[in-house]
Amino acid sequence: MDTRQLTDRISVRDQVFPDEIPGLRAAGFRAIIVNRPDGEGADQPTFAEIERAAKDAGMEARYLPVETGKVSDADAATFGAAMEELPKPIVAFCRSGMRSTTLWALSQAGQRPLPDILARAKAAGYDMSGVTRRIANGGQVPTDEAEISHDIVIVGGGAGGIAAAASLLARMGNLDIAIIDPADIHYYQPGWTLVGGGVFTPEETRRDMASQIPGGVRWIRAAVAAFEPEAKAVILEGCRVVKYKKLIVAPGLKLNWAGIEGLEATLGRNGVTSNYRYDLAPYTWELVRGMSGGTALFTQPPMPIKCAGAPQKAMYLSCCEWERRGTLKNTRVEFLNAGGVLFGVKDYVPALMEYVGRYGIDLSFHHELKRIDGPARTAWFERTNADGGREIVEKSFDMIHVVPPQTAPDFVRVSPLANAAGWVEVDQATLRHVRYPDIYSLGDVMSAPNAKTAAAARKQAPVVAENLLRDLGLIAEPHEAIYDGYGSCPLTVERGKVVLAEFAYGGRRVPSFPKWFIDDLKPSKTAWLLKEKILPPVYWQAMLKGREPMAKPHHQTAA
């Protein structure tokens, strides 16, 4: 019985036959909505037959016929009213389930977020791209055809989006560019590790967004609801449409705090903190300073995540402070990692293991945080054993630094741009979309198998800029620019020393500096100075301004 659940109140399916109705009642359904007009198919039972069988089974039936491709605003309103009136749960059907799903989607406009509607329909096997604008318009057919249009549209005003805009303008100053982002503040997120370690103040990591938008670029302060790549259009919340010749998608990723049961209710209190949020990083430092002993847990979720080294950076800096104050000997520190290795680039693991030993850290691999009770100071992890078996492990804590699971933003994940995992599907060398050649992506949201770091976006921006301008015929470069997967993770192993991990696709080490200056395999004071003093100005004054020291792209040459 192929019913596909949209919510706990309603499911959809293809044609229902009278002899299937007792089975639907046994499955718990209490009402049927028939959206297929009588006589549409030669083998189709009439509504009267369906209604009689439903009555015999103790169910209600409602006839709301809609012709294929002709779902009206009134039809959607009637469907929504029927959902309220009929006993639940309900099963609605037409020939394939598509019309019923469309009616549900339009009836939910304005009640549920657009990405949630699209995601639920997609999970049930139905593509709502044909009515996305109507859903965004509150379930009504849009009547205002006025559209915003720009040659280059960038979704996202974070590190990747602004760096891409600046990189484009550095190559050609008279481009017509718009950035879409609803945020008022731009954050230097790599600095939050140092906020949590008592080195930076939170205010040092933020600027007004208006001050960071490059001159000459239009800032559209709105949230994106959906993409229509076939129409070269971006749909904003409220159903405004932005048209483009070229699109760059760089909205970052989604921190799924709700993915851990109980976490949202206790963040920022009860010893529960995270450097992954601007307002929580100061609480990390407050907890570290306030602890004189006890149990400190540090977690890492399944990959991919933003800055894979950040979970252990928080741990090392905390341990360094406890060591300095003489309380580390009274503190049990445990690193609970959903993965199976300390760091993904094996060359850097020996240096990290020296600090694991120095600080007396217990390493627990294949442990994924599932639930947390802040007032009880208890967390539950799912441990995967060597044989693949799984069990729940309970851990008590005085302090816990949590890293949430991470996904692409909802409006990306349910869009035609996404791959099966939800990330924008790009060629990992050119960063051009594999199916839509007028679309590029960079930063955390795209699918290339590189580390999701600001350092990666710094190298990606000029690649996107050159290839996009080359596609438009505005530069004469004969070969495409190539991104080699570069990423960097300055691992703050103690206050004053950093292991400067730099790597490309395949975990290949690509150190930027000679060994006599910074030995990337060893903790370095010089690398700490780079992290604390040099990289923030490089970010604000170079990367976001189109200046690209040590970031010029390589080019593909003929074999």
UniProtKB/TrEMBL annotation:
Keyword annotations: FAD, Flavoprotein, Oxidoreductase, Quinone, Transit peptide
Cofactor section: FAD
Domain FAD/NAD(P)-binding: 150-268
Pfam families, sorted: BLH_phosphatase, Pyr_redox_2
Residues covered by the Beta-lactamase hydrolase-like protein phosphatase-like domain: 2-110
GO molecular function: FAD binding; hydrolase activity; quinone binding; sulfide:quinone oxidoreductase activity
Entry keyword Oxidoreductase: yes
GO BP: sulfide oxidation, using sulfide:quinone oxidoreductase
Record-linked InterPro entries: BLH_phosphatase-like, FAD/NAD-bd_sf, FAD/NAD-binding_dom, Prot-tyrosine_phosphatase-like, Sulphide_quinone_reductase
Keyword Zinc on entry: no
Protein name: TIGR01244 family phosphatase
Source species: Jiella endophytica
